[in-house]
């Protein structure tokens, strides 16, 4: 096998990972190192695959540039997340590329290091084992790649959803822009640099998740979280606190104010992505259970005490008008002392249903509750919840809960 073939074998070698295939990780390493070499160079960049033979266990790629020579005492510091040399701050960047590249190279059982400068050049050396624990057979690679692309591998990807809007609140513009860049292909992104700006955005936009730093001017993340979780207009919105403070006291304070998750800086992006996905999936599971379980109470989708009180008042308002088939969004919004837009966003955020859909589900759940008491006939229950035709009631009940009213009673 020649050197080129062996290198290709390494490039596509894989190992099971909860985050991503190693082929993609390796491309990420190379991309970051190419980018850094070019960005910080004055005039000259040299990238070279060093010679190796069939007896070697590693191959090495050398990245050289003639930019600002990094001092020896900084050779490890530059691999810390978000750290940037003052001499390179004029260049756009986040301080994430090198730490990520080193982490990924170590996952490959390799290493990334800054060697001693030579002739005014910075020298980064990437060393990777030629063989990984698990490798793809080159002869079968084309077939495997084709199958993977068809399957979609849902577990390896954050479910794409531009219907989900995330508000990022961070006074460090580099981190703010980094998060926007990494998340905008999957989610709608809104940005704020302090808690007050964030709260103003919440009033006007349909936000599904807030990711907030704690240490910020004007209004910090703890206060923003407290205000979100105690204001009935926003209390259903999950909050992820993102901070460099790693004391147990600060964690407790965040959780006491209703934070749904707490991630310390420096963080791994995949950890944040997994946390976002987890919150969305858990919320969806709760909503689906409520919607399709005849006797599940609406309070089950409450996220906070404010949500619980809101839903209890909403349930009461619907039940008091349950025979009114003209009950609509405007009428309910007035009963709940909310504007139509705010009421719509609140219901959609809590249940993922429109207010009209939620009214119909609440009507059918009231019917299930009455049927479960065993005191009424199906026709009587249908009339009680506002249905004039028993056939329409049976159709809607079956469509919502997957069982006819009569079979529901039998199964009890």
Task: Provide a descriptive summary of the structure in words.
With about 400 residues, the protein is α/β, with parallel strands linked by helices. The protein has 16 helices and nine strands. The protein has helices spanning about 5-10, 20-40, 95-105, 140-150, 175-185, 195-205, 220-230, 250-255, 270-290, 305-320, 330-335, 340-350, 355-375, 380-385, 390-400, 405-410; strands at about 45-50, 60-65, 110-120, 120-130, 165-170, 190, 210-215, 240-245, 260-265. The strands form two sheets. A five-stranded parallel sheet has the order 6-5-7-8-9, with helices on both faces. The protein has a four-stranded antiparallel sheet with strand order 1-2-4-3, with helices on one face. Helix 7 links the parallel strand 7 and strand 8. The longest helix has 24 residues, at about 270-290. The chain is elongated, with a radius of gyration of 28 Å. The termini are far apart. Residues about 1-20 and about 135-160 have low confidence and may be disordered.
Salient structural properties:
single chain; about 400 residues; alpha/beta; Heat Shock Protein 90; Rossmann fold; Arc Repressor Mutant, subunit A; 5-stranded parallel β-sheet; 4-stranded antiparallel β-sheet; 16 helices; 9 strands
Radius of gyration: 28 Å
Report the helical percentage: 40-55%
Proper CATH architecture of the largest domain: 2-Layer Sandwich
Q: What is the CATH T-level topology of the largest domain?
A: Heat Shock Protein 90
């Amino acid at each position: 096998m020649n050197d080129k073939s062996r290198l290709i074998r390494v490039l596509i070698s894989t190992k099971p990972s909860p985050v991503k295939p190693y082929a993609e990780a390796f491309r990420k390493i190379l991309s970051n190192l190419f980018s850094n070499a070019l960005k910080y160079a004055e005039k000259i960049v040299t990238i070279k695959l060093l010679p190796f033979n069939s007896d070697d266990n590693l191959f090495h790629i050398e990245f050289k540039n003639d930019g600002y020579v990094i001092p020896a005492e900084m050779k490890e510091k530059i691999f810390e997340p978000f750290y940037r040399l003052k001499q390179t701050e004029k260049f756009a960047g986040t301080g994430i590329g090198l730490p990520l590249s080193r982490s990924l190279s170590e996952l490959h059982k390799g290493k990334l290091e800054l060697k001693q400068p030579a002739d005014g050049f910075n020298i980064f050396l990437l060393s990777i084992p030629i063989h990984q624990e698990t490798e793809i057979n080159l002869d079968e690679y084309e077939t495997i790649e084709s199958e993977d692309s068809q399957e979609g591998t849902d577990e390896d990807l954050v479910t794409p959803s531009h219907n989900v809007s995330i508000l990022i609140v961070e006074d460090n513009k580099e981190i703010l822009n980094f998060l926007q860049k990494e998340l905008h292909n999957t989610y709608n992104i809104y940005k704020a640099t302090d808690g007050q700006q964030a709260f103003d955005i919440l009033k006007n936009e349909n936000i599904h998740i807030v990711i907030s730093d704690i240490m910020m001017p004007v209004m910090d993340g703890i206060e923003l979280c407290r205000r979100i979780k105690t204001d009935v207009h926003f209390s259903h919105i999950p909050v992820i606190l993102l901070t460099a403070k790693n004391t147990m006291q600060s964690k407790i304070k965040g959780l006491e104010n209703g934070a749904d998750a707490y991630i310390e800086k420096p963080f791994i992006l995949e950890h944040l992505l997994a946390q976002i996905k987890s919150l969305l999936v858990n919320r969806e599971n709760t909503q689906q259970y409520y919607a399709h379980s005849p006797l599940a109470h609406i309070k089950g989708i409450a996220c906070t005490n404010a949500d619980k009180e809101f839903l209890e008042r909403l349930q009461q308002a619907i039940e008091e008008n349950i025979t009114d088939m003209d009950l609509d969004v405007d009428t309910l919004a007035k009963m709940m002392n909310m504007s139509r837009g705010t009421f719509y966003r609140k219901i959609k955020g809590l249940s993922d249903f429109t207010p009209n859909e939620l009214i119909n589900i609440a009507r059918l759940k009231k019917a299930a509750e009455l049927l479960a008491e065993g005191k009424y006939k199906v026709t009587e229950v249908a009339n009680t919840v506002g249905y004039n035709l028993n056939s329409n009631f049976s159709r809607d009940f079956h469509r919502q809960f997957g069982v006819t009213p009569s079979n529901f009673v039998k199964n009890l």
